[in-house]
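Figure S4 source data
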Amino acid sequence: MDRSNILYFVLSFGRGIVACSFIVLSLSCSVAEPDVSRDGENTSQFSESDTVVALSCSPSQQWVSGAPQEDGFVYAVGSAAVRYEPLATAMRRAQENARVELSKQLMVSIGANLNISTVRRRTGSGVSDTTILRERVTSNAIQIDLPWLEIVERCIDRRENIVFALASLNRGKATEGLIQQITQLDEKIGSYTSISSAIAKTEQIRRLLPVLDLITKREKLANTLSYVSGYSLADASNTVAIERRINNLFNGLSIALKPGGLDAKSIEPYVVGYLADKGFRISPIGHADIVLDYQLQMRAVINQGIYFVYAKGEMEVMDSDGRLVNMFKVDAKGGSPVSISRARDQAVEQIGHQFGERVVEFLFAGL
């Protein structure tokens, strides 16, 4: 698959991928909401059971003007002005701002996807097929929890109507927890090495594709670990071997077409062109890993001087052992005021592209 195919997979299957420079984190902590009053007026909309009093800022709370420095910890301060909203709402914003500020110090952006460039594997003059698959996976924005981040202090500057929150991260606990999570993922990834290489390629691909989610999550955890502790963790041998195996399977995958009848034969150039553009090899029947057996029915009508052709197609997807692995139906309509042949060409082209799309969707159904 050449480099131009990357855009196709990102747009067709990415569902809105955002290519950013950092990783997705879900920075969670348990913090009670404040319920405070100013000038005797209760401005919180939370019940008493959901709240706790936040104290006024005092001179001893020097963290308000600058986050403290302490070995083994990362601190950050967040603030929010209290104007036209309850104090509880402003405090939530201050706490979130503190989390964001702390994440910036770790070179992390909350809510962003893993940068594609961190998983891109270049081979000679091109980009490997595994790269395309990995770009597909990163679009799912897998969440990684960092529960070691806490809001440890809060206070209110009543004169300036500003609330402050202090976030803290224990590097030691975070490092220990991340290594434990990575170790557990390595065990799950390793279990995929037991999938037999003697079964059909299509079945191997379908069984192996789910592991890419785990590999992507592991990579994000490893990146998070390097941000938190400065420790770089290499890919496990199982991870490298499985990625190479999936890459080789896709590189060697070939497809044959078996149209049923002349009408179905007319679709063949469009199906072949679509699949070839996506990097798949087209082979004769008997030498292919996948055989596409398809039928086409067309009906022509004239309505108010406009020629219409309605087309319906059915396709069966067979593996190299002749077993049915999938089937689907598609339909299309072509119209032309000039001739029925033009309307037919439109319908045939649409059916051909739909067949190609459904085949690719089937191959990537594990993601």
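Figure S5 source data
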Amino acid sequence: MALTSCDFETYFQYDQSPKTFQFKDITNYASQGVGLNEVTGVFEITDPANNLIYNNTDFTDPDIDPDVILTSVKTILLPLDANGNVLQGDYIIKYTVRGSSGSIDPAVDVDKTYTHTLTYDSPTISLNLTANCIQPLLQSTDTTNYTSGITTPTIVRDHEIHYPAALNKADVTGTGVSLETNVIYTLKGTALTHSSSLTSTLTYDFGDNWHHEVELENPKEGLK
């Protein structure tokens, strides 16, 4: 059998600093009778301004060496606009795999190209902290709209309620949309600030093997 096709996934890593591309080779080499040690892969990327921002043509120094790891190992920065935001528009990403040893003789190149249209704005976390001293109940609720277009991400939350620092009490922690406790501290004649915070790790699947990874966090929202 022979190497006839390749495929890959693209990740826009907004959760990295600086923001980067990440690629994963998802080629079914076994069905083509090709060993992972027989291939290497390189990328070519054209940005929305039609600039060729990355072009690795060296198969001896590849972006992906499947026999070692199926994800890209080089740091490739996402291009930014004048305001420091990731450039919106069409990204043309080409992955070329060369089979050049073992069962593949003579050497052969195969490639796969995707065009991904970026129209994404990171949401701002919105937390609502409420208190009922009669019940009692202290509740923090994530009211953020994370949807981008018609795509709702997978969300992993790190949600916390913080007691006044002077009390030296442990935080209440959770992973849900809402976090609550029936422990509220009051002190006559003194304002005690309770607060909540949230870190949300988002993974969007936009189809065509294209994903976004985003991490958002907010400062503590206080309530006296």
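The mean pLDDT is 93. The two ends are 71 Å apart (CA to CA).
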